[in-house]
Amino acid sequence: MRSITTLDLQYAHRFYGFKGEAQYLHGHTGVLTIEVEDSIEPGVNMVFPCNEIQKTAWEVLKNFDHALVLREDDPLLPAILDVYKAQGIRDGAPNNKMMGPAFKTELATAYPECRLVVTKETMTVEGMIKIVYSLLKDKLNIAKITFTSGVNAASEEFEPANKIDRCPLCGIALNENGVCPKCGYKKK
Ligand SMILES: [Zn+2]
Ligand SMILES: [Zn+2]
């Protein structure tokens, strides 16, 4: 069975070098749907609590919200960084609080202090699915990711690889010692 959660991401990007309107900087509200698959944990009669999937995903993905996403070779990148620097917001601002931990993967690097994500490939809906999967595959038993942005949508199915032990009282993943980080339940 699957537990499914959805979250919104508001971001700006462009398709550098693309012969179409999308080569100009523009913004979207993207809708990301994550489907997690496993057996039903009988104690809570759930695969996984949807709000916990959302929390786990948001912790990393909030770096994409109200962010600018640019490809690493886009000449806008140094230009924007120069403006942010001159304005004194390159290394943070007091009201930039919604920051996740900085991350760097093969496909994307997040600079939460200035709400920027630099990608290796153009951030299409397909590109976003690859990035999201690489960021969350070890944390969640992902079976499917769908990303919709404007008139564009893509989805991909994955083979859920992990066998995650869950708390029979809260449904969330037990830590490496078999203890629930929320209620303290210990696996026997
Ligand atoms: Zn777009
Ligand atoms: Zn628990």
Oligomer kind: single chain
Measure the end-to-end span: 25 Å
Task: Indicate the CATH class.
Answer: Alpha Beta
Order of helices and strands: EEHEHEEHEE
The helical percent reads: 10-25%
Sheet-strand content, in percent, reads 25-35%
What would the principal axes of the Cα set say about the shape? Answer: globular
User: What structural class do helix, strand and pairing data support?
Assistant: alpha/beta
CATH topology: Tetrahydropterin Synthase, Chain A
The strand line-up of the biggest sheet is 4-5-3-1-2-6-7
Known CATH architecture = 2-Layer Sandwich
**Helical stretch count?**
3
Mean pLDDT: 95
The main β sheet shows up as: 7 strands, mixed
Spans of at least 5 consecutive residues with low confidence: none
- C-alpha-based Rg, rounded: 18 Å
What is the name of the CATH superfamily? 6-pyruvoyl tetrahydropterin synthase/QueD
Strand count: 7
- The total domain count is 1
Pathway: Purine metabolism; 7-cyano-7-deazaguanine biosynthesis
InterPro entries: 6-PTP_synth/QueD, 6-PTP_synth/QueD_sf
Organism: Anaerotruncus colihominis DSM 17241
Enzyme class: lyase
Q: What's the layout of helices and strands?
A:
Blueprint: E1 2-13, E2 26-37, H1 50-61, E3 67-71, H2 76-87, E4 108-111, E5 116-119, H3 125-136, E6 142-149, E7 152-157
Parallel strand pairs: 1-3, 3-5
Antiparallel strand pairs: 1-2, 2-6, 4-5, 6-7
EC number: 4.1.2.50
Catalytic activity: 7,8-dihydroneopterin 3'-triphosphate + H2O = 6-carboxy-5,6,7,8-tetrahydropterin + triphosphate + acetaldehyde + 2 H(+)
Protein name: 6-carboxy-5,6,7,8-tetrahydropterin synthase
